[in-house]
Structure formats: structure tokens, C-alpha cells
Write a structure and sequence with these properties.
This protein is α+β, with helices and mostly antiparallel strands. It has four helices and six strands, in the order αββββαββαα. This is YjbR.
Length: about 140
Amino acid sequence: MNNEMLRERLEAYARKKYGVEPEQLPFKHEDYAVLRHSDNGKWFAVFIVKSRSQLGLDGDGDAQIVSLKIDDPPLADSLVQQPGYLRGYPSVAWNWVSIVLDGTVPFEEICQWLDDSYDATSSKLRNQKVVLEKRRTSG
């Protein structure tokens, strides 16, 4: 599966599951896009196209990646030891991991990380349980 097809499948997955559309970023390269929460505006996925050499990959030409938030630094450290995973681009300080969209990492696995990233960046207030006061009875 080529990387354009994989990106399109991921965008379709996010569209169906979360009701979001990819948003083009105002950078020089037109193939950058983000998926963001509709309620809080936070990014949960970033699609980036860079030259393979800029990403530290072998070969010529461009590579397409998706960067996702991983809220567990030890897990992120173990992931980047596996083929198809890179330290988060553009900044390792963001607790994000990048996945090369070349078929090395299975689509279903990327979807699981996309779901985790969505959860990690969701509005914390929306996920909190509301404690209701007990009604007082007159008596």
C-alpha cells in the first residue's frame, strides 16, 4: 500500500469515528495537515511530508509521516526502537511519536495509536465525572 493511500485511509477513519476533516496548515509545504478536536481545537494527529534525509531515513525522495501524541514516555521510547517509528517530529519535547506511512506499521496498529492520541488530547473536563449533590428531603 502506498503512503498516499494509507494517509487517505487514516483520514477516512478519523472522519468516520471522530467527525473531523484534515485541516491544511499555512506552511510552505501544502501536504501538511492536522486533525484537531472540534471542542478544544487541540491537534491529535499531524500529517507531515519531509525528505527522507531530513527524517533520518534511508533512500531518496519524500516520506510521509503521521505524528501522534503518546502520553507514556517509556512506551514512546520503546516504540521508536521498532521499524516504522520515529521520535516525534518536529519536536521530541512534545511527547509525540511519528509513524512512517510506508506500510511498515500495519493500518490497524496506527488506528489504535490515533485513538490513543485522540484520548490523550481530549478535553479533560469532558471526561470528568460530575458529582451531583444529594437532594435534601423535607422531613
